[in-house]
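Example 3.
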Amino acid sequence: MKKQRGLQVIGWLVVVMLVVGLQPLSNAVNYRRLVLGMKSPTPLTKMVDFDPTAVTGVIMGAALGGFQGVAASMLWMKMEELWDSGKGTWLECLNVMRTVTLLDPHWLEPWRITGWHLAYNLYVETKDPKLQAIYLAKGLDALKEGISWNPNTHELYLELAWTYFDRVRDYENATKWFRATLQFPHPEFVERMIAHAYERLPDLDRALDWYDYCLKRNPEDGTAKGATTTIRLRYLPAWRLMQAGKYDEAIRAIDRYLEVEPNGTIALHVKAHIYEQAGREREALDVWRLAARLSALDHQARRKANELAAKLGVTLLPSEQAPSYFLEQMEQPRRLEVPRRRER
Amino acid sequence: MQAIYRVAVATFHEAWRRRFLNAILVFAVLIIGSSWTLTYLQPGAELKLLIDIGLGSIRFFGMLIAVFLGVRLISDEIEKRTIHTILTKPVTRAQFLLGKFFGSLATVLSNIALMGIAFYVVFAYKGSKFMAQGSSEASASGTPGISTDFIYANIAKAIGLSFVEMTVLTAVSVMASTLFSWIIAAIFSFFVYFVGQAADFFKSLANPARGTGFGGQLVFNFIYGIIPHFEVFDMREAIIKGTYVGWDTLGMHVGLGLVYATLIMLVAFLAFMNREV
């Protein structure tokens, strides 16, 4: 009996020793998994801040016993079915997409498609500009949230940059996110997109630098070649005069091109920029307003017109106004108002 | 040694005669085989889906087999009183326990091997198509595309790690079987498995940056320390990313699994030593 009790004590001591000895091995395995990219960790900030989405994802993952990847894949197939068969509304598709991102936040495809779906499909589904702005901003938010989960790969940076470039036409943010893409292996066209964004901003020096880079990398790059020639012929003379402080001559130079193509977006942006540099804000505002009236999608011109109009105390026409709530929405977290079911 | 072997062989044969285990296996093979019919999704998504369904099914059904087999090993013998016959022969409790454990491990291994073969067949056919399709679309769009390096080797290693994971889970259910009735043991085993999948969460909860007090840190670190980290045996992400998993890394994972299993079986033995049968 005594011998058995002694064995028991030794046994439990061995158990405790094994538990303690296990920890370095367990830490080493976890460390190696992180270093080799065998697992994507839940970003610590999400846990420290107790991000509800992240915590829900972890708990659901535990409830599914590590099968959340399978569940996410199954839901994704369901989403494809809703999409292709046309049985589900696009909002239903959105709900399924968001659930997939919650279940498997390291899967990039659902983030990409969710951002695109919000910023493009749902945006055009509604005619209400307020709702459009919310969808657009939520699309951008989804992509940013995806980046916060997957900061070490280019895909979502690129998708976000493209949405800013193509949809929002916010070229400052577009250049920022396109440049963020460069940290990782990326498609060849990204450098060219940076140049395009700088061209539209306009920041012609930087645009030319990036086009030059593209041409040095590939002298046969026809797009870069054409864009460089266009910039040098159309806008650069005025730009250089502006840099030399000869603002009147710069305006005359860009006007010469605008006589040929009065609706040229980039030329109008350059002209407004020259006025701004010259401190002639009223005239800059007029040019931005003109650009805004010419293209409903020129958000860059609308934003600029809005800023200057607010500064100068000018009232804009409705067709020139950038929706102010749009700017607000871009800065604050937003909520989609779900219409309440009517009581019968 | 002979006694352990005999108990193990008897357990193996008995397990294969259990109909519910056969049903689980058939169902698993059907699910894995159904991914054969996967239709076109976005490039890259099909491959991920194929791997998720295949390896996910192996882990899921492997888990069911490991738990339902393990929890009935001891409790059934006690309920049917057959344990008296066995223990009166020159078979010690330790030999009996180890024989049962190894017998159920052999059953789990054979089941995982069958599911793994089914998955490999599907993958060899569908996976190669998806990979070719994905790489041609990626090169056309100029994007880096999905990495398919080491994919076949990684899948084999992932199946191997699933077996190590199930070894630990079998040990947990055998241990639970020595302590509780089979139904409670099953609940306990599932609970440990699910919590073990989110072991990292407890480490995050213990982080003082979250404002966790000293007591909370102790509790969460203790749970993190004792709970088997089942999520480390999941290799799907490495497969998708095309990460090379070297033998040394694999060895560390296997080593960790073996230490867990040894530890849990030791606890099972200590509990079984005191148990009146």
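Residues 2-36 of chain A form the longest helix (35 residues). Chain A touches chain B through 55 residues (CB under 8 Å).
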